[in-house]
Structures are given as C-alpha cells and as structure tokens.
Design brief:
The chain has 243 residues and is of the alpha+beta class. It folds into two domains: 3-104 and 195-242, Alpha-Beta Plaits, CATH 3.30.70; 114-186, 2-Layer Sandwich (Double Stranded RNA Binding Domain). Helix content is 34%, strand content 31%. It contains six helices and eleven strands. It has helices at residues 17-38, 67-71, 158-186, 188-199, 224-228, 233-242, and strands at 6-13, 41-49, 55-63, 76-82, 93-103, 117-122, 138-143, 148-152, 201-206, 211-214, 219-222. The strands form two sheets. Strands 2-3-1-5-4-9-10-11 form an eight-stranded mixed beta sheet, with helices on both faces. A three-stranded antiparallel beta sheet has the order 6-7-8, covered by helices on one side. A hairpin with a 5-residue loop joins strand 2 and strand 3 (55-63). The chain is globular, with a radius of gyration of 19 Å. GO terms for molecular function: translation release factor activity. Peptide chain release factor 1 directs the termination of translation in response to the peptide chain termination codons UAG and UAA. Belongs to the prokaryotic/mitochondrial release factor family.
Length: 243
C-alpha cells in the first residue's frame, strides 16, 4: 500500500496537565469517528492512559484511499480552551496537544536490520503505573544506530506489540531521514524556521464560544459537538484546497 493510503498518527499531550491529556482522548475520538465515516481501516498501536481517563499519548494507524492527503493538514499544535470538570471557580483553561501525521514507509525506503534492533520485554502498565498484566507482553525496541526508542503495550500478545512497535519505529526513521535530507537541501537556518513554524498552534477549539478556528486559513466554524463527533469533511476539504 502506498504512503498516500497508509499513515500513522501520533497525538501527544502538550501544556495543560490532565486537561491536555483529556483533550488527547477527545481528538482521538474525533479522528476515529471521521476515519470510520471514510471507510478507512484503523488500528490502535499504543496508548498511555492517565488516572482520570485521558492519555499522555495515543498512536494509531489509518489506511484507506487518500488518507494521507486528507489527514496531513491535521499535523501541528492544537489548542483547546474550556472549563475543566475539576475547575470549581469556572475559570477557562488553555491546553494543547501535538499531532504528527507520518506516512508509512515502503519496504525499500526503510530496512530494519535485526542486528540494529535491541528488544526489551516488560509488564504492561495502566494509569498511575500499576501493572495491568501479569505476563511480560509489553515491548520496547531501540534502534541502536540512531538511539530511537519505541514502546508498545496495547495488545495482550507479545508478538503483536512488537509488530506495532516496529511499525512506529519505521515511520519515525523515515521522518528522521526526510528531515535530515530537507536540512541538507535548505540549510540549517531554514530548518530552524520550519521547526518554529511547526511549534505554532494551527487550530483552537474554543468551547465557551462553541467555535473552532483554523489559524492557517483564518476560518472559523461553530457547533463543536458536531465537529468533535467526527464531522470534519467541510474543514478538511477547505484545508486541502487552501494550503
């Protein structure tokens, strides 16, 4: 399957503590429902839950027609403004989550040699770090030449977790390779500018005003409940034609 039709998405909590972790879960739910509406296959590769139902990080794969061209515009920093359920004084909190959209590499692009991979197995852990599985099913793989480390513990099967970890490692190595090539072409100054641009927020979800704003195209939409339920068609189509 070509990179246009197969990707891995990573959603990580940014600033905002537990509220940011809850936002990660909300974004995953939104993309999962959108993927279902598009008829794409999806698979949860790894997740790190928190004690109150959020996630420090969620990594999942999507495959289907035009998945990369539709989802690549989602990469960047997403900001949420809302009153947390734990907020007693009704104050609005601002939190962020960072999204990466990585095309899966072709077999010829990234070759993972067994002698360059170190594999560790351990017991999977749940919220708060407690062990949730008595068997050693979680996997941590280290790519020795680069030092990249990837873990997976979502499946109850050791081999499936290793397969997931290797898939994540492959896309990260491809992203690293592309970044290094881009740096050589454009020079270190342009690479630094690009890194700063990626740190800029691309979108704000303002719940008190029931509004989503995409800052790249200076466009807003209302009805966040509908949007968060996976109704992203209009937004994604406009981004595809504008960016």
């Amino acid at each position: 399957m070509s990179e246009e039709n197969s990707i891995i998405m990573e959603i990580r909590a940014g600033t905002g503590g537990q509220e940011a972790a809850l936002f990660v879960g909300d974004l995953y739910g939104m993309y999962s429902k959108y993927a279902f509406s598009q008829g794409w296959k999806q698979k949860l590769l790894d997740a790190h839950p928190t004690e109150i139902g959020g996630y420090k990080e969620i990594i999942f794969s999507l495959s289907g027609e035009n998945v990369f061209s539709q989802m690549k515009c989602e990469a960047g920093v997403h900001r949420v403004q809302r009153i947390p359920k734990t907020e007693k004084l009704g104050r609005i909190h601002t939190s962020t989550a960072t999204i990466a959209v990585l095309p899966k590499p072709k077999e010829t692009e990234i070759k993972l040699r067994p002698d360059e991979i170190k594999t560790d197995v351990y017991k999977s852990s749940g919220p708060g770090g407690q062990n949730v599985n008595k068997r050693m099913t979680a996997v941590r793989v280290t790519h020795l030449p680069t030092g990249l480390v990837v873990s997976s513990q979502n499946e109850r099967n050791l081999l499936q977790n290793k397969e997931n970890a290797m898939a994540i490692l492959a896309v990260r190595l491809l992203e690293r390779k592309k970044t290094e090539e881009q740096s050589k072409i454009s020079g270190s100054r342009n690479a630094q500018i690009h890194a700063a641009e990626r740190a800029e927020k691309i979108r704000t979800y303002n719940f008190p005003q029931d509004r989503l704003t995409d800052h790249r195209i200076k466009k807003s939409w209302h009805n966040l409940e509908k949007i968060m339920s996976g109704k992203l068609d209009k937004i994604i189509k406009l981004l595809q034609s504008s960016l």
